[in-house]
Design a protein that fits this description.
With about 200 residues, the protein is mainly alpha-helical. The protein is built from 7 helices and 3 strands; from the N terminus they run αααββαααβα.
Length: about 200
């Protein structure tokens, strides 16, 4: 019985040794092939990707009329709103993002749109105002940013000039929503450099 068990153990160890020698002498495995670069999107795919992104990035909430009242009017999709946002920056209105040449972004290039989304600076050099969350969108990939531009350029133009922004401390209008003063928790804190300069 002992000899049989010993023979089985010895036989198993010999098998492992032979396998190890065989593997060590084998030709090194070829490196895995580099994954193929995905094919560039077609124009139609860019537009569809842009439609998806503007939906999940909630662009319609501010830029499509009626959304904040529970009845978005998609026949005027992304044509701007006359609901004013009043805060320390003054009063801002969600702009017309359709390619209307006079009241929308029809004269903007795809590069203009992408730059605005990423930097918060419009094609004319003016700064986007809250509540536009451009800081979050600054991390978009080139592919996604240009897909949004393609989608906006594909929309039916809607002629609608939204009200001009108003400076701080302007009396709110009847269609303006006033952002309340922040609580102590939400109040902006001074930067560390500002605090150090006071001491």
């Amino acid at each position: 019985m002992r000899w049989t068990r010993w023979t089985a153990v010895t036989s198993t160890l010999a098998t492992f040794a032979v396998a190890a020698v065989t593997l060590s002498c084998a030709k090194p495995a070829e490196k895995a092939a580099t994954p193929a670069t995905p094919a560039a999107m077609t124009d139609a795919e860019k537009v569809e990707r842009g439609r998806y992104l503007t939906t999940v990035m909630v662009c319609n909430d501010c830029h499509t009329p009626g959304t904040f009242y529970g009845a978005p009017d998609y026949s005027r999709k992304l044509s701007g709103s006359e609901l004013g946002w009043v805060g320390p920056w003054g009063t801002s209105y969600a702009r017309n993002l359709t390619p209307d040449m006079e009241t929308g972004i029809g004269k903007w290039s795809a590069d203009d749109i992408v730059k605005t989304i990423r930097t918060g600076m419009r094609a004319d050099g003016s700064q986007l105002l809250p509540p536009m969350p451009w800081e979050m969108y600054s991390n978009l990939t080139d592919e996604d940013a240009y897909a949004i531009a393609a989608y906006l350029k594909s929309l039916p133009p809607v002629s609608h000039k939204v009200p001009d922004k108003k400076p701080p401390k302007t009396k709110p209008g009847k269609n303006d929503w006033v952002v309340p003063a922040p609580s102590a928790w939400d109040a902006p804190r001074p930067a560390a450099a500002d605090t150090a300069a006071k001491h």
